[in-house]
Each structure stands twice: as structure tokens, then as C-alpha cells.
Amino acid sequence: MTEAILTLSIFAVPVLVGAIVEQRKIEKERKYKEFEEIRRRDYLYGFKAGMGYQSTCDIEKARNGLKQNAQQVDKEWKRYAEMVG
């Protein structure tokens, strides 16, 4: 009986240690891939947010340009009326 336990411990313990080391390695790789995916998503979210901000700025710039052009036209009409009138 003791010999069986001794034999089992000689062969089983290294196998268990190997399995534990392998499991930890697999878990570490999984965490690394998961963190990479999170980083990629954060980058894409930041990029999309930046693009949204840029399009908002472009829209505001166009609106401001239209207001400024309208004011310029009003000034031109007023100056023309003064010249003619």
C-alpha cells in the first residue's frame, strides 16, 4: 500500500504541477488577449468620439460662416443703398 502511494506521488505530483503551470499560462494568455481587446475598443471609441467632435465643429463652422456671409450681404446692401441713395 505504501509503495503504491509512493509510486503515485512520484508520478502524479509532477503531472499535477505541470497541469497547474500550463493552466496558469493559458489564463495569462487569455487575460492578455482580453486586455488587448479592451485597449482596441477604447482606442476605437476615442477615435469615433473624436470624429464626432470634428463633424460637430465642421457643422458649427459652416453655420458661423453662413451667419457671417449673411451679415456681410446686409452690410453690402446697406453700403450700396447709401451710394445710390
Identify low-pLDDT runs.
Answer: none
The major β-sheet equals: none
Q: How much helicity do the residues have?
A: over 70%
**Number of helical regions:** 1
Pattern of helices and strands: H
- Mean pLDDT score: 82
Q: Please give the number of β-strands.
A: 0
Distance between the termini: 123 Å
Radius of gyration: 36 Å
Write the layout of secondary structure elements.
Elements: H1 2-84
Q: How would you summarize this macromolecular structure in one to three sentences?
A:
It is built from 1 helix and no strands.
Structure description:
The protein is an all-alpha fold and 85 residues long. It has one domain (1-84). The protein is 98% helix and 0% strand. It is built from 1 helix and no strands. It is rod-shaped and about 125 Å long. The mean pLDDT is 82.
